[in-house]
Design brief:
By secondary structure, the protein is of the alpha+beta class. Helices cover 21% and strands 38% of the residues. It is built from 2 helices and 11 strands; from the N terminus they run H-H-E-E-E-E-E-E-E-E-E-E-E. Strands 1, 2, 3, 4, 5, 6, 7, 8, 9, 10 and 11 form an 11-stranded mixed beta sheet that branches. It is elongated. The termini are far apart.
């Protein structure tokens, strides 16, 4: 009996050491330039847009068993000329140019993002986000007609009618701070809306 118990303890200890080593290795990898490039490459495969950020850190040990993700100066952009064929010459509003740049237009940008996630429910296709903090959101959503909108960034070849891998998501805390700007335009329906938000705190389970 004692021998069997020692074997079980040895196996459990070995698995724990391997798990901690894997998590530490994952953290080191994502804190390197290779980790940042991997994230950008993956985003490029699933979004018809460009993802940029100035800093990306992943902490697997600081709040174990949760994983913490921090990123700064995040932006999602697309070529400036993408929707030139959907011109809105018949209507005029300064909000139509919100997010527009000389070479690239911005769909979304953030000063910073802080996430704390419990990943241990993923095998059951569940995701627990313990908290999500956003600072300095700038969202520029433009709908040009019934088939063209700048938030439709998934290429047709990547879209799927199948069931999503994640079947259940819970959010414990949502925080928004800083200077936040939200713009929505629908030129076809002459709808132009803009809003600014200073802060928002939501707690509990969602």
């Amino acid at each position: 009996m004692k021998r069997a118990l020692r074997i079980l303890l040895y196996i459990a200890g070995s698995l724990t050491v391997l798990l901690l080593a894997a998590m530490l290795g994952l953290q080191i990898y994502f804190d390197s330039d290779r980790g940042a490039k991997l994230v950008q490459d993956l985003a490029g495969k699933y979004m018809d847009a460009r993802l940029d950020f100035s800093r990306l850190t992943l902490s697997t040990m600081k709040r174990f068993p949760s994983i913490m993700l921090d990123a700064d100066s995040i932006s999602i952009t697309y070529p400036h000329s993408r929707f030139d064929s959907c011109g809105s010459a018949a209507v005029s509003s300064r909000l139509l140019n919100a997010g527009r740049g000389e070479e690239a237009d911005t769909l979304l940008s953030l000063n910073s993002l802080h996430l704390k996630v419990n990943p241990w429910h993923l095998p059951a296709r569940r995701l627990r986000v313990l908290y999500a903090d956003f600072e300095g959101i700038r969202l520029f959503a433009h709908e040009y007609d019934s088939t063209h909108a700048n938030w439709k960034i998934l290429p047709p070849s990547k879209e799927s009618d199948g069931e999503s891998f994640i079947r259940w998501i819970s959010l414990g805390h949502l925080g928004i701070s800083g200077r936040n700007t939200f713009v929505y335009t629908a030129a076809q329906n002459t709808v132009f809306a803009g809003a600014m938000l200073k802060s928002l705190e939501l707690g509990g389970g969602m």
